[in-house]
Design brief:
The complex is a heterodimer of chains A (188) and B (298). By secondary structure, chain A is mainly α. In chain A, 39% of the residues lie in helices and 0% in strands. With 298 residues, chain B is α+β, with helices and mostly antiparallel strands. Helices cover 38% and strands 18% of the residues of chain B. Classes of the chains: A mainly alpha (188), B alpha+beta (298).
Chain lengths: 188, 298
């Protein structure tokens, strides 16, 4: 009777790291390594038939699988050597994060205040216009179709280099939209 | 009666909480909604009155042509520190990528060959990844040293691409009576015309028809009231109410950091023009006028 060898992956936990670094559930990696040739050929044929079946169906969009982490990334050789961070450094980092939170809150408040000011000025202008003539006031309240949707280009990062001509055109997406075949055939 | 009212007012103020407004008729209004009702009543009276005697204010429409910033603002010291911290943390929490794995293997191989553990025939590369990296860094260094960014002339007020990190406004020098005054391009409102149409007319009459500007709404964005100098005042008009409309100059393209301004000046109206940032406005315009525009430009 052949002894079954069961491989376990030792979980090495660390609170600082995200789970991409260590293999938690690598599964039975080598269970299909030593199979007789006939069985392998049979498996390949079965997969070919499945692929033929799928190719008859209409094309489906490829699902977004960014959140599936490949197993090869969870191996130990991929782990970056750990840096020792002193307590002082940690304290500094935490304080910096808190200061950032304060500053973003403040800048958000300033922005919303500026928007309120803009609206206030417009309201005041409309009130003054109303005091002058009702007809112009009603004309000013009309909603205009042309400016919606309003597009406005934000600033660029730097000035151009001297004598540099940027290439014309935009970007084209070359990602495959449709799935060609779901199953990949293993090597014999 | 008056004493009763005043005592109630004091009592309310002591309690705190609600905001009290005084309207024209000196009665106490408790919140904003009832204030607007008051204003409406006032307007009714004016409507009836205006048919009898017209208002002494001339209606004018002005254009605040804004050129939005072309280049991002510089990062502050704090922002740079925070960005470097975030990059550091992301680097620490990441895993090695394929390039780095290869680099480690190659250095290991080279060390083993040198020390004699492995045979020199196992070298499967001619140029190591580390050498490639050094080449790239060298090339980048040479590139940054050899090329320079365009030097913009910030002193020329007529250049639309000056001061690319700020919001700029177009100001023109016009005749007001006998004096020449720096102000926004304005036109008097004429009959059978919208205020927005008179603002567009102001732009085309001052800068020509080739100017590309997108107006945003039919309602004015700002307001400024001023009295004419005494020698310019007529029986009909004491002063003018200026309604300011915001318009934006579009950029040439997404990747370019320039804007174009096709000018076709009518020299009778616009004697001179300038693209001016917020801090420079004070030297051109009167303080109240510059304040009125300052808060409209974001």
């Amino acid at each position: 009777m052949a002894l079954k060898k069961i491989f376990f992956a030792l979980p090495v936990c660390s609170s600082r790291w995200i789970s991409t670094s260590y293999s938690r559930s690598a599964g039975f990696q080598g269970s299909k390594a030593n199979i007789p040739l006939e069985m392998k050929l049979r498996m390949i044929e079965r997969k070919k038939r499945r692929v033929e079946k799928l190719s008859k169906q209409p094309l489906a969009f490829i699902p977004i699988t960014d959140f599936f982490i490949p197993y090869s990334w969870k191996m130990d050789e991929r782990a970056r050597p750990k840096l020792e961070i002193s307590e002082e450094e940690e304290d500094k980092r935490v304080l910096l994060e808190k200061e950032w939170a304060r500053k973003t809150f403040r800048s958000r408040k300033q922005e919303s205040w500026k928007i309120k000011l803009l609206l206030r000025h417009q309201q005041r202008a409309l009130e003054e216009l109303r005091q002058e003539s009702e007809k112009l006031y009603n004309a000013a309240l009309q909603c205009e179709d042309l400016s919606i949707p309003f597009t406005c280009r934000g600033p660029v990062q730097s000035t151009p280099l001297e004598g540099y001509l940027p290439p014309l055109g935009g970007y084209e997406h070359t990602d495959p939209l449709f799935s060609k075949d779901d199953l990949s055939l293993p090597e014999v | 009666m008056a004493t009763q009212l005043s005592s109630r007012l004091f009592h309310k103020i002591k309690q705190g909480g609600t905001r009290w407004f005084y309207s024209y008729n000196r009665c106490i209004v408790s919140d904003k909604q009832s204030l607007s009702k008051h204003l409406k009543r006032e307007v009714h009276d004016i409507e009836q009155v205006s048919s009898q005697c017209p208002s002494p204010w001339m209606l004018q429409a002005g254009v605040c042509l804004i050129r939005l910033p072309l280049i991002e603002e510089d990062l502050s010291e704090f922002q740079k520190r925070y960005i470097s911290l975030k990059e550091q943390m992301e680097y620490e929490n990441s895993i090695l990528n394929e390039w780095e794995l290869e680099k480690i293997k190659q250095t290991q191989l080279m060390n083993d060959i040198e020390s004699g553990k492995r045979d020199a025939s196992e070298m499967d590369f001619k140029v190591s990844k580390q050498d490639y990296e050094d080449d790239y860094n060298q090339a980048f260094k040479e590139f940054t040293e050899s090329t320079t960014e365009l030097d913009l002339n910030d002193a020329d007020f007529k250049n639309i691409n000056r001061r690319p990190k700020d919001y700029l406004v177009l100001i023109s020098k016009q005749k007001l009576g006998n004096d020449t005054v720096w102000m926004l391009p304005t036109e008097e409102w004429q009959e059978e015309e919208n205020l927005r149409q008179s603002a567009e007319r102001a732009l085309t009459s001052h800068c020509g028809t080739l100017v590309d500007a997108s107006f945003v709404s039919n309602a004015p964005s700002g307001f400024y009231k001023y009295k004419f100098p005494k020698n310019a005042r007529t029986d009909a008009y004491v002063g003018a109410k200026l309604f300011i409309y915001n318009a934006f100059v579009p950029r040439v393209s997404e990747t370019q950091s320039t804007a174009t301004f096709n000018l076709d000046i009518d020299l009778n109206k616009m004697l001179d023009y300038a693209w001016v940032a917020k801090d420079e406005m004070r030297s051109f315009l009167k303080p109240k006028y510059s304040k009125a525009i300052d808060e409209i430009i974001f």
